[in-house]
Design a protein that fits this description.
The strands form four sheets. Strands 2-3-1-9-8-10 form a six-stranded antiparallel sheet. A six-stranded antiparallel sheet has the order 4-5-6-7-11-12, with helices on one face. A five-stranded parallel sheet has the order 15-14-13-16-17. The protein contains 26 helices and 19 strands. By secondary structure, it is of the alpha+beta class. It is globular and about 70 Å long. Strand 2 and strand 3 form a beta hairpin. The protein is about 40% helix and about 15% strand. Helix 23 (about 570-585) packs across helix 25 (about 600-605).
Amino acid sequence: MTAICGIWHRDGRPDAAQDVARMRRALLPYGNDRAGTWDDGAIALGIGLARLLPEDRFDRQPLAARDRFHLVADLRLDNRAELAEALGLTQRLSTLADADLLLAAWERWETDTPDRLIGDFAFALWDAEQRRLHLVRDILGNRPLFYHATHDRFAFATMAKGLHALPDIPLAPDAFTLMDCIALAPRRGPRSFFAEISRVEPGQRVTVHADGRIDLVTWYDWDTPRDLGLRSDDDYVEAMRATFDTAVAACLRSDDPIGSHLSGGMDSSAVTASAALQLAQRGQRLSAYTHVPLAGARLDHWGDRTLDEGPLAALLAARHANVDHIRVDAADRQIGDDMDAQFHAAEYPPFNLCNQVWMTEICRQMQDRRERVMLVGIMGNATISQQGVDRLPLLATTGAWPTLIREGVALHRRGWTAQRVASSAIGPLLPPHLLDALRRLFRGKSPPRDLLAYAALNPALVENPDYRAHLEQLGHGLHLPSLRSPRALAVSILRHTDVMGLTAKGQLARFGVDQRDPTGNRRVIDLTLAIPPHLLLRDGQTRWIYHRAFDNRIPPEIRSQAGKGLQGADWPTRLEQARGTLTAELDRASPTADTLLAMPTLRALAAADTGTGRVTDAQRYDQRIKLLRGASVAHFIRKAQRRND
């Protein structure tokens, strides 16, 4: 993982390198193993390398080819061998850095190059012949990239602080972006968390022309499934297993020890199992970290969720002699105790302060053990372990009633109530208000689907017609959307994760830990989006293809869980411990926060007692979600306005 930056003075001023030097200094936390600058007077490119891959010792960026192309890149390529073969570079591959392969690929395919890359990447390429600057990001945005444009200058940087190093770019929050994130709306468009700074969107190429025009091109097609040449069910099962193992293998490229986040769920279990098997063949060990609740803490008993995933994770770890299982209760950490550090390193407001506690503690422990790679399975719900229940409304909309009835009966035989089957099949097809009314009729209550039930936004903003129209345009509206097919659900999740790149950068800057997620690998995504729905839900068996692909790797106790794990189930106790921190943060809120957030509600929630009995649905949404997310945003606004009073 690396930091890149650059300046193009389109008016011809020859001092671009001076500004790049300023930007590089600001970006040092993200890459200080080697620095470099290419200077052509009016345009300059800079890089600060963090050596995390074995081949990084050959990295000599900025790179140039034929005096035409000049490249700086932040990347990990997972299809090195395939690229080298296509480019005739197989014999030299062992001495080539990933950036060398990328530049050779651009020489061959130019703007068609991104669609041939597998891995995490963000890069900038100057085409001297055509006088164009290209900025490109991978499909999930696992490597961030930002830019600032005026009539005579274009500047870009890995993180916003690189741009804020330029004295004329103001440091201020972008209220519109914060509103959308609090509302859980999908992020669309170039706005970032900071005013006057744009982001290259995931799966996008931004091309800047000499006359100031900026073209925004989405290079990855989310709408059309790719034909992978798979015909039988067995073909898909084998492809799932082989593709996933290949993705995990690519994430194991490291000269340093490796750790994994192991919950009691299906995704991290699959990642850890595959990694352990492959590392065992090399005689290497794997540290598997599991968050467990504080001893004696009051836990949130939420439905059928697993509150302590330690025992389930231990079952998986026990299958592998080379796995060191480490339980992490983060007893010395407190909600909100590192918000300042998080702001400076990741530059966005974390939207789950409960999980932030143990996530950062795992990174601290990895740093102590000198482990530089953390394997995660964050995207697994959208890829390898899709439940498949969204096949039911798809069957309804396509008129496949016999199949719908057969699957409904099979689910009922597996323990689903008739109401749950009907709600899953027909609910997504109904208007939200009608669906809520039916749920109240049959269940006596309705889940908090309305935006204001979970979002800490100022109600006046939510009622603004322009903002309501904006949400409707995003397909979000004032109610959470219902999705009508497994593929639609997967795409919605995969296109809603842009902050993961900022999280990874923050972990690298603070702890030297590089987060890698094989469940979000491009090959895995392409396969997932092409899987026929009957391989996800079949004969009442949810996650059918997952069970077939990994049944001999994952303990049946993990695969047969009725509900998901609830990480951070000890939040009631942790919140009580952090009330002073949260109250102080809300008391210091800026006028901007007062305008954007429902501050009277948040202050009342910070002062309220969660009680001693079972946590109610209202308490969960008010305290864990609305209060903590609101306090996080209030802190971000204050820091982004340089207010420390």
